[in-house]
Design goal:
By secondary structure, this protein is mainly α. The protein is 72% helix and 4% strand. It is globular. The chain starts with 8 loop residues before the first strand and ends with a helix.
Amino acid sequence: MNLSPDQIIFWQYGVVKLNATLLYTWTLMLVLVLGSWLITRQLSHTLSRSRWQNMLEIIVTTLEQQIREVGLAEPRPYLGFLASLFLFVAIASLATIIPFYEPPTGSLSTTAALAVCVFIAVPMFGIQQQGLLAYLKAYTEPTIIMLPFNLISELSRTLALAVRLFGNMMSGAMIIAILVSITPFIFPVVITLLGLLTGMVQAYIFFILAAVYIAAATRVSTAPQDT
């Protein structure tokens, strides 16, 4: 039983390794890119639409609504980034039904990379919306004493994002692997279905938390102006 897809090595030359995490991550990204291109290359503006376009529109409108409810009145600027996070984690979980597939989100390196993406995107969107000085000023509010605590908060929530997603995804894979070795028929199927549901929930939670962090960053210093 592998605790992480990092342990599955397909090719190695010296210190250079091609493990399951890298292979499945890039394969998943390729599938997302090709799938997006195939679905959007012939979009229809009439009532006659393909089922794939209908599914894509449902996903887009649902995610837009969720982003709007979080507090971002205009979701379009953030949709590409947040939807990519959601789809990556969700499809990584759904693909677990494929034999011998190991979800890359079961590796701490992958979840850390996703968390770092959020860590970088939050100030980028905040600076874009508020300006550099206004955004940086928020770290010293309500007093300069709060500066180190606000910086620690930025780092700790990034770590929490990575560890939360990694722990939940890895625990599901470990439970399935243990049950397969003990009862290789009925229970693994049930747990696999439960794992699919858990993976979708984790994708949604990761998406919502990223949206909340961006919403907080883009609303910096707006409250004093309203009063």
